[in-house]
Amino acid sequence: MREMTKGANVGLADLSDDAGTVIASLSWSSTAGDGDADVSVLLLDAGGKVRGDADFFYYNNPAAADGSVQLLGKTPTDGGSEDRISLDLTAVPEDVERLVVAASRYGGSRFGDLDDLRMTVADRSGEMLLGFSIGDASVESAFIFGELYRRGTEWKYRAVGQGYETGLAGLATDFGIDVDDEGENEAADAVADPGDGEGTATAVESPGAPQPLPAVPAQPGPHTTAVEEQPAPAPKRPRARTAKKKVTLPAVATKSLAENDSWRAARLFPASNLKSDKEREVRATSVLLSVMAQVPEFGRRLTAAFGAPAGRMQTFTEVSLPHGDTPKRPDGVIRVERAGKLWTALVETKTNGNALRSEQVQNYMDIAARRGYEAVVTLSNDVALEGSPLVDVKTDGRRKHKVALWHLSWAEVAHQAQMLIRHEGVGNAAHAWLLQELLHYLQHENSGCHGFQNMGPSWVPVRNGIDEETLSQGDPRAVEVVESWERLIRQVCLRIGGELGQKALPVQRTQRGTTALSRRATHAERLCEEGRLAAELRVDGSPGTITIVADLRTGKLRTSVEIPVPEGAYPLTSAKRLMRQLAEAPADLHVETLVEGQSGPRGTLERLRPEPGDMLPRDGGRITGFRLSLFKSMGATRGNAETGFIRSVDNAVDRFHSHVIAHLAQAERRTRRTAAQEPGSAPVPAPVGA
Fold first, then answer.
1. Distance between CA atoms of residues 502 and 499, nearest Å
2. Helix (H) or strand (E) holding 497
3. Neighbouring residues of 479: CB distance < 8 A, sequence distance ≥ 6
């Protein structure tokens, strides 16, 4: 891998023979666990400006119609998170000269608060071509990490490392984008973009779906870098226009015309008659691959992460390929054609909790290498973790042709389908219906495509060892349980994110240089000593980080969030405001007052509602915030049954988010709207949980 210095450039063709499609990754870490940023890509013409607002890609406009740019979203890493972007350079329009890759932070956050700022570029096989680390970030709230630009027929990369104190708005307006602060004109926010009427259908927008915005003129004068003398205040997240309306499905199903509840709607992909694992694998593979080929947005969403170009996709099942004396039959084949070039991948599928077999995957890797295939894609209920491969395969370093091995969880497939049909939208109503049928099939109890659903063979021995106090430090079974716990938490994030249309990621609080293996070993030691598994989730729109603790000694699950008190707020006023925000929260919600340097008062919401003053410390200690917690009995078995541990974790997170987090967020929005509607009123202090 070529390490770049600031200002250096290199031709991609000098680093790889196959750089037509690359994966750009931006990563960072934070010891506090609160490091987050949003990536963006701008397409610039010869004059250094975008051709229009549609050339600006970020969280509200994640993919180009021609497939040249696709934001693949965040994935957890050893020390933080990584945002990946698929760039199909063969599909970039000829009048585009540069692709600028940037990231931005909000709410007063700065890039100087993050560690290990880095951009990498990999080819479609996943091999790293170059890396660029940024070590001089300070007060910037937006950063250009790098850019890809044309030199004749060749694409080159330049390490930029330029910062903006004016955030994404300053960066965007520098390149010709008109932006509008979110929430400044809510009435205009709801106006639909008429589009051109061709190939579109009327959209039924869900609350999380992207909304078009009218542009407002940008402030005159150039935006400068981090040396600007009088930086503008950190802007809210600007949103770009969308060129066309897209179809999303309503969250609530339409009223059924059936005579009674025993009638079942006809399904395109029935699952009720599946009896064997083989039938489930064949049906699941065929259903998924057929929908990928027929719904371009969905097919590109899944294959772009593997380095596939945007193009005409065809999919096949049960293909026989020669391999020694006995032909092999992979579960499927994906072929994508663009500009006369072909990208191909073999697919191996497992359902119902069956594990991938190393020997089988190795055979497909060998076949793919000999036949010139680009990738082998595995699908199963397991969730892949860094530093813990699902299968061990060997690659022949002497072969010039490289084959990439990629893995998808069925939970990730369902997440991507849900994001498209509920929040981001697809091209037409037929595509939305196909994705809905796919999602219904995946969620059917008989499909076998339920995601991670087994804590593993070490779960019961570890639980018994903790209960009997016989589990010793260094027991490898504790590490296996920690890995299963991490897989479960990642799946919870996928499910929550798909339902809400928001980014949801596990929080990693690690020191620089910590590896995934060492982090899991530390957590395993803590499990042996304390008997508890703990994790933190960050969900966009939540007032704080959600913490979930599974106490294997008491058999209880605790979900909680800490709500800070605004600086300078009166303690009793903060307590009363919190009670108002929690007016519809469960009576058994535990509230603990966080007092600087000591333990604070605590009690259930039922007891504290009549007397908010009971939440104040008697000695007048300084209140820093409140901790809100719900407790639930923990499932005993290792599986995904109704009484299982996995189901109990899902239910605990769902109840806490819907009955506590959602009410806090709704109360905050209501408070801000009320304050904004009062003419001439002074700004009110942010409510608890702001």
1. 8
2. helix 476-500
3. 520, 521, 524
Q: Which amino acid appears at position 583 of this protein?
A: A
Place of tokens 């059917």: 444
pLDDT tops 80 at residue 234: no
Q: Would you state the structure tokens that stand for residue 233, as one six-digit string?
A: 């205040």
Give, as one character, the DSSP assignment of residue 79: S
Q: What share of the chain is helix, strand, coil (3-state, %, to 5)?
A: 30, 25, 45
CA 235 – CA 224 distance, rounded (Å): 15
Q: How far apart are CA 403 and CA 112, in angstroms?
A: 38
Radius of gyration of the chain (CA): 26
pLDDT band with cut points at 50, 70 and 90 for residue 444: very high
Q: Which of the pair, 393 or 192, is modelled with greater confidence? A: 393
pTM for the predicted model, two decimal places: 0.82
Angle at 604 between CA 601 and CA 608, to 5 degrees: 70
Vertex 95: Cα angle to 89 and 100 (nearest 5): 55
Cβ count within 10 A of residue 233: 9
Alpha-carbon separation of residue 493 from 68, 71, 148, 477 (angstroms): 28, 18, 32, 25
How far, CA to CA in Å, does 241 sit from each of 128, 215, 349, 426, 435?
34, 8, 39, 16, 25
- What Å distances lie between residue 226 and 28, 41, 112, 533, CA to CA? 19, 20, 12, 42
Most confident of 19-33, 157-171, 393-407, 546-560: 546-560
Sheet holding 142-151, edge to edge: 9-11, 154-164, 142-151, 98-104, 38-44, 56-57
Q: For CA atoms 640, 645, 648, 653, give the dihedral sign.
A: negative
> Residue holding tokens 């973009």?
193
Strand ranges inside 277-398, DSSP E = 312-317, 332-338, 341-349, 375-380
